[in-house]
């Protein structure tokens, strides 16, 4: 029925960019560098890389494959691979949908800040200093209004659907972002203090190693690759049958990790340059001050040292960041919207508004109780919900889904699959190694 007329990404590259657009976002530029800076730098980087390749990549393949096989929203896709337990399968989809909505509710707040730092300098340049200050300093009213602006932008893109909305936004901008990062990194490394940050990021000091660090690195890897909350599943469902999933997933993981790595190369040195210039970064006990907003004090401090050119680079940077955040947030909203349009037979234009509205309300509750709720919602979703649901998906693919069906599905875009090294390792890997690894991290 709906399946043949269901929207699809028009090309393989369009899909890679959309999935990479989902993956690359605040997780890379805000989450990863902040976590690295508060967890000893290089040790965190090392464990993170391990988590991405040993755990997140195999699960990314699993989620994309479930989605493409189901060719439907996550609830239906999960049911189709577990027809004996349709109820539990649907519950898993619903859990993912709730988790991703909660992620969007804090994500929109942080993305709103980006918006503030984008518009602030422009207003300042034309003399509206008070407004610029309001945009750039922490307050409930600012957090609320900018969050709403960002939610509306997300709603507008998702409203237009996959081919028109999502794909168009995701193409072309990613390379520009990467180039800008490399340029800024080149600049920051010439500044006084930068080497200290670079050393922290690249030279491991194993005294920082702890089980908490491993849990954070796992959460960060899941968050950065948009796993465990059905975003990749829903994007997989728009994927053409002739796409090679293991290869595409590898490209997405590689791109995402490169952006996180380059962001670390920029932001850790930038922190120490800022510290050198008098910005306080660590407290006396050596813990990061205001870690949530760290990136937002360090980067503007860097643009300030660049003279007039810095204003333009700063604006360009925040424009690209808003777009990167938007290509991620649309992959979040798409999950409940796809469920509502297909399960409740609702019009996309209707579903997008009421679901987006509910998320905006929840996000406002966080804004008004920022101190109590912001960190809590982040850790509940990224450190618990994402890995736990990810583990359930691994168990489903490894133990419940018929091996032959999995094989046929991946084979559609990868005819020589049976002879590949991938097929020798991956099936038992998601069946045993991934769940065991996740359990170990949890009980460590
Ligand atoms: N991966 C996105 C980022 O790094 C966040 C995200 C999480 C997107 C979960 C979709 C689902 O910013």
UniProtKB/TrEMBL annotation:
Keyword Nucleotidyltransferase included in the entry's annotation: no
Family matches, as InterPro entries: Na/ntran_symport (IPR000175), SNS_sf (IPR037272), YocR/YhdH-like (IPR047218)
One Pfam family it belongs to: SNF
Cellular location(s): Membrane
Segments forming a coiled coil: none
Membrane topology: Multi-pass membrane protein
GO cellular component: membrane
Keywords: Membrane, Transmembrane, Transmembrane helix, Transport
Entry's transmembrane regions: 12-30, 42-66, 87-115, 144-162, 169-189, 209-236, 248-274, 294-326, 351-378, 384-401, 421-443
Classification via PANTHER family: TRANSPORTER
Name of the protein described by the UniProt record: Sodium-dependent transporter
Gene assigned in the entry: LIN1873
